[in-house]
Amino acid sequence: MPTSEKTRIFITGSTGYIGGSVLSALLFDPRSNSFQITALIRSANKIAPLNSVGVEAVLGSNSDFEKLTAHASDADVVFSCADADDLHAIRAILLGLKKRHEQTNTVPILIHTSGTGLLIDNADGNYATDKIYSDLDIPMIEALPKTQPHRAVDLEVVAAGEQGYVRTYIILPSTIYGIANTSLVALGVQNPHSQQIPNLIKAGIDRKQGGVVGKGLNLWPNVHINDIGTLYTSVFDAAMKGPDAAGHGREGFYFGANGEHRVGRISEIVAEALYEMKLGKSPEPTVFTDEEVQKYLGGRYHGSNSRVRAERAKLIGWKPVHTVDSLWGSIKPETEVIVERQNAWLGGCRK
Length: 351
Prior knowledge:
The protein contains 13 helices and 14 strands. By secondary structure, the chain is of the alpha/beta class.
C-alpha cells in the first residue's frame, strides 16, 4: 500500500450490525486520518450523518453492480460486509479490484464477510456434533460441499486471491450477540441488533411463548459485537503489513468466535424472560412446529451445529475479551429492549 497517500477504503453494508461496527472501528483507528473511506448505503437520509464524520456516502445497493465495480476499482482495500451469499455482487467487486490491479500494478485487498453458517448440519436441535473446525485446518474447510451456505461466494473469493490480482481475507463470524453501541448507532446510522437471537425473541413474543428447535442440544460458537469489530481491524492491520503477515487466499479464513453455547439454552433464557414479563405462558420453551421454523427462523438454521476454533485469528493478534458468560448476560436485556421497541411501535400505530 502507498505510504505517502491516503489509503482508499470502500465498504459495503456499513449501516448494518456488522458493517457499522467495522466502519466505526475504522473511524476510531489511530490511523484514521490516513484513510479515505467511501461507503455504499441504501438510505439517502444517512448520507449527511456519514459525511459529518468524514465518510463519503454513496447511494446504492448490492444490486448496483456498476457502482460496486467502479468504487472497488478506486480502492486499495474493500470491506465486503453486506450479503454473504450474493455471488453477483462479489463478482462485481472482484471485477473492480482486478481493474485496480491492472491500472496501478498494485495488489488491492479484499476483506470479505462470510459466517460459520458455512458449517451447519441437519441436526434439527436433536444432537451435538463432535466435529470441530479450525481456521488453520484448510483441507477440512476445503472438503465442505459447494452447497453449504456462503460456500459458493467464499470459493469465488479464494479463487480470485489465488489468481494474484487481489489479496483476499475471509472473516467468518459466529453467533454475534450484544447491542451495538457505536458512534454510528448514536448518529442513527447503524442497526444495533443482530439476527439470530433477536429472531428467537421476536418469535417468542409473536407466539406468546418462547420456542426451541427440536431438543435444543445443538452447539454453536459465539462472539460479542465489539470483539467482531476488533477482529476486522486485526485482519486489516495484518493485511496492511504485507502478504507475509497473515494467511490469505486459500489460507485466508478467520473464524470469529470466543466461546461456545448450547443453542437450546438461549431459548430457555428467552422463555424465562418472556414469562417474567407476562408475555409467555411458561418459563420452559416449547418446540417450534415445522411451520413456525419457516415463519420465524427462515429454516432450521437454529437447529444446526457449527463448532469452530478461532486459531488463525488469534495468531495474528486478535484478543477477544468477551466470553460465553457475556452471551448469557446479554439475552434478557436484549429481550427487554425488543419488547419495549415493539410496544412503542404498536402504540404509535394506535394513535
